[in-house]
Amino acid sequence: xxxxxxxxxxxxxxxxxxTSYMVEHGSRLTPEARQFLTDRQIAVSYGTQExxxxxxxxxxPNPDRQAEKPDWRRxxxxxxxxxxxxxxxxxxxxxxxxxxxxxxKVLELSRLFSALQRGEGGGTSAAxxxxxxxxxxxxxxxxxxxxxxxxxxxFHIQLExxxxxxxxxxxxxxxxxxxxxxxxxxxxxxxxxxxxxxxxEIHYMINALSSLxxxxxxxxxxxxxxxxxxxxxx
Length: 234
Known about the structure:
Blueprint: E1 2-4, H1 6-15, E2 20-23, E3 27-29, H2 31-39, E4 43-46, H3 49-54, H4 63-67, H5 72-96, H6 100-117, H7 162-185, H8 187-193, H9 199-216
Parallel strand pairs: 1-3, 2-4
């Protein structure tokens, strides 16, 4: 029988530190050698070398990998933005058959929305856009939540332009829902940086659509302000 001494272990450890040690069949540790391994918390196994190599350790969980879980809220937001983009195109296509000028205004907003999807929306200037406000939505609140200044009811769809009004209202409602989805998906970053990346542009498009809805009814007076003023200023 072969005895493994503390000196032998020290020499091996000096050459290359180890965390486990196998005592081969037919060998034994001296008390000093055993204490050497215990002091360094080195795991000891017994048996043949072949059997020891078959023992596998389960991989430890990787905290970095766990932290890389996909954010479902951002995935949901991307899908919603794609849906709204498709709705812009569908609305523009339907309006082309009924009112070319109205369709052009909607497609202009569609181009702005496409820029938001590409991450080019932050800091859009009102000077670059054709809608400059109206009596109910003044220039200083173009990029703020002005509410749905014109409420669409079943009465409006009976008008001559009822189809156009319904299409614009559907698009406006989709944008308002998207605004809340943006806030949900970017909640953490908003708390850290105190900024709203694309919310102002969404407000602008909602306000522009509200003004379009108002003018499409055929009336020339604002539903929120003094009725003696005109409703739009494109």
